[in-house]
Amino acid sequence: MNTAIKIKKILADILGLDERINFMTTNTVLLGNIPELDSVAVVAIILELEKKFSISIHDDEISAQTFQTLGTLINFVENKLISKKHNSEKLFKAD
């Protein structure tokens, strides 16, 4: 399952979007467009992203821009995954 599909599933589950998730594209605006996406939901989504992707997301990394669109959220997670992979490779090379 690719990153975008996993993120859409997380959003659907946490926000209760049901079939609406099927119509979401990377250009779909999240903040201000989805009433269910409040501050409590953002925290729940962040926690689930950390769990599903085995990443750490720090408070100072999150902004309104992160949740602006589905695409910005996907890009954020993909960048975290790239950074995680890069850091892991550096650790193995150091040995």
Overview of the structural elements:
This protein is an all-alpha fold and 95 residues long. It has a single domain (3-94), classed as Non-ribosomal Peptide Synthetase Peptidyl Carrier Protein, Chain A, CATH 1.10.1200. The chain has helices at residues 3-15, 39-53, 70-94. Helix 1 packs across helix 3 (70-94). The longest helix is centred in the C-terminal third of the chain and has 25 residues, at 70-94. 13% of the residues are buried. The mean pLDDT is 91.
Mean pLDDT: 91
**Counted beta strands:** 0
Reported CATH architecture = Orthogonal Bundle
What structural category arises from helix and sheet content? Answer: mainly alpha
The CATH topology turns out to be Non-ribosomal Peptide Synthetase Peptidyl Carrier Protein, Chain A
Low-confidence stretches: none
Assembly annotation: single chain
